[in-house]
Design a protein that fits this description.
Blueprint lengths: L4 E6 L5 H15 L2 E7 L9 H5 L2 H26 L5 E7 L3 H9 L4 E5 L6 H6 L14 E4 L11 E5 L4 H14 L4 E8 L6 H12 L4 E7 L5 H11 L4 E5 L5 H6 L3 H8 L4 E4 L1
Parallel strand pairs: 1-2, 1-4, 2-3, 4-5, 6-7, 6-9, 7-8, 9-10
Antiparallel strand pairs: 5-10
Length: about 280
């Protein structure tokens, strides 16, 4: 797989400039077309509220404010990127962020969004947040932690491996990054902490692509896999984590927890995910 088209989510939020910089850097590295998608509705505006829970006046006021900010942000975006040789397209859509991002991701090789903080039970259950694109996108999604503005390629990558279609798609999507990384670590989690034939197979697969990786086993249960993965990323000094995304209900993640949800909201380095 090659990366020749990148989609970056643009909105009136505190991390939009960081996404500019990261997207610009990756577009330059891969000689890729960059589509900047600005969605006019506020980032934290619940899909469930549009046309239903919110008053018509409140909805119009919030969307009007976002549209006024659009010209300011577009000017900032072009000022930053036009001085560089980047193939840029600016797209404006009305509607709900996740739905619009999912649609445009159909026509891109990589989508870039930021982590979103959830502070209340209402938000966790009802919000349709940009970082949830990782669990819906038809293309791999790169979720940037807050304030991350490094646009270069990662030097050290940790892969959370579990034999599944989602993990396999994430691995395939990460190949352009893995081939240029200086170090790759594959982390598996099982109750017995031992390698199996599937683990050996993924190492052989990477080797056939010219990627020399090390394999690390952790002993534990699946729901704790996210903790193990992030600990390994920290000890390895990784600057990217790769994993498959497994979607549960938001209430399930709140009450029971999941590896996907934990990594998605606690990663301190970019997370490349496919579902």
């Amino acid at each position: 797989m090659s990366i020749k088209s990148i989609l970056v989510h643009i909105a009136d939020d505190e991390d939009h400039l960081a996404r500019f910089k990261a997207a610009k850097g990756l577009a330059a590295c891969f000689d890729a077309h960059l589509t900047a998608l600005y969605v006019t509705s506020p980032v934290h505006f619940k899909a469930a509220m549009v046309g239903r829970g919110a008053s018509v006046g409140f909805e119009r006021e919030k969307i009007a404010f976002a549209k006024r900010k659009m010209n300011e942000i577009e000017g900032e975006f072009r000022e930053y990127l036009d001085s560089n040789d980047i193939d840029l397209e600016w797209v404006v859509n009305d509607g709900e962020h996740l739905e619009r991002l999912t649609y445009h991701a159909c026509f891109n090789d990589l989508a870039i969004v930021s982590q979103t903080e959830e502070t209340t039970l209402e938000e966790i259950i009802a919000h349709s947040l940009p970082d949830q694109l990782a669990l819906h996108s038809p293309c791999p999604t790169l979720v940037l932690p807050h304030g991350w503005d490094k646009g270069g390629l990662p030097e050290r990558v940790v892969i959370g491996w579990k034999t599944s279609p989602a993990a396999n798609r994430a691995l395939r999507g990460a190949m352009p990054f893995l081939k240029q990384a200086k170090g790759v670590r594959v982390v598996t989690v099982s109750e017995n902490g031992k390698a199996d034939e599937h683990d050996k197979s993924v190492m052989m697969h990477l080797e056939r692509h010219g990627i020399q990786a090390e394999l690390v086993h952790e002993t534990g249960v699946d729901r704790k896999a996210g903790h193990f993965l992030l600990n390994q990323a920290a000890s390895y000094q990784a600057d990217m984590v790769v994993m498959g995304g497994f979607s549960h209900s938001r209430l399930h993640d709140l009450v029971v927890g999941s590896a996907t949800s934990h990594v998605l909201h606690h990663a301190e380095v970019p997370l490349l995910m496919a579902h």
